[in-house]
Specification:
globular
């Protein structure tokens, strides 16, 4: 090569990167069980999705089948015939995570095997492209667990907006900021009266693990909607993943709650509220916003919090 490097040589690291201070150690949480997720997965530095998968598989155990549609995790798992997940994986079309999982479950049931079958999909395959199949599986109360790891855009194909992208966020096809709000996935699934729905964040690992365990034990269609910060797509430092996951909850952007049978709503973590500007400041996708836009986002978060508070009160009063 012209610069004298062999093809497998890496260039020397930039001094600013090499010498930058290391972040303080994050609190460590080890879920019970044995690590099934293998080294060598293909996630970007700082990606939260392997954190979610590692925790989930420790709780779920080896008698698990993952049905993964086109998404970041279809790449993260590894190229065929390799897999980093440590359990059986079925790769399926973008829109078919739920129906594929339902079919796998039916086939195993016909063979007399009781195996946990999981649809593991991103927000694009959940909020948008896979919504119809997911709705149908929920209406039939298929005995599958659906996990949506939500990085709030189509990250695998170039950071395009999805129905989960928050208002005014930059994406590659919303350069001026997304117009419109993020879909209310909790409200959508509650309307299906499924046995169990929960939101989770890797920034609150004990709460996340408790909800995953609950969902694993429950029968029928159940869902865990997990926030999955994405450093490249959110335009933030890869060291800020867990800080962003905590701030999303602490600012009310991503509240933590669970819903039973579509009617019993319960808040599971209630931190002291912090201004949404602290969360936005971590992310370059909100970097062009002025004070008025930030105030509008804060107003939207406050309105969503008021709606959730009504749902929580309705459960208590009922």
């Amino acid at each position: 090569m012209a610069d004298g490097l062999r093809a497998n040589d890496a260039p020397p690291p930039d001094r600013a990167v090499r010498d930058r201070p290391r972040p303080a150690a994050e609190p460590r949480y080890d879920a019970p069980g044995v690590d099934l997720l293998q080294p060598g997965h293909l996630a970007c530095p700082g990606c939260a999705a392997p954190i979610l998968m590692r925790t989930f598989l420790r709780l779920a155990g080896p008698r698990t089948v993952l049905c993964i549609p086109a998404s970041c995790y279809a790449v993260i798992d590894g190229p065929f015939p390799y897999s980093s997940s440590g359990v059986n994986v079925v790769h399926c079309a973008f829109e078919t995570a739920a129906v594929t999982a339902a079919g796998v479950k039916a086939g195993l049931r016909a063979r007399g095997e009781d195996v946990l079958v999981v649809a593991w999909a991103g927000d694009g395959g959940t909020f948008d492209i896979g919504l119809q199949a997911m709705s149908a599986a929920a209406e039939r109360n298929e005995d599958i667990l659906y996990v949506c790891y939500d990085n709030e855009a189509y990250m695998n194909t170039g950071i395009q907006r999805s129905g989960a992208t928050p208002a005014l966020a930059w994406t590659s096809n919303t350069a001026g900021g997304k117009i419109g709000r993020k879909k209310d996935l909790g409200g959508i699934m509650a309307a299906h009266r499924i046995p169990y729905f929960a939101t989770a964040s890797p920034g609150f690992p004990e709460d996340m693990a408790a909800k995953m365990e609950r969902a694993i034990r429950t029968r029928g269609f159940r869902m865990v909607h997990a926030l999955s910060p994405c450093p490249p797509g959110w335009r933030m430092d890869e060291r800020s993943t867990l800080a962003a996951a905590r701030l999303a909850v602490e600012t009310g952007v991503f509240p933590l709650y669970e819903v039973e049978d579509g009617t019993a709503w319960r808040e599971t973590v209630r931190p002291s509220r912090r201004p949404v500007s602290e969360y936005l400041a971590l992310q370059g996708r909100f970097g062009a916003l002025g004070e008025g836009a930030i105030a509008a986002i804060q107003a939207g978060v406050d309105a969503d919090a008021a709606l959730l508070a009504q749902r929580f009160r309705g459960t208590v009063e009922g």
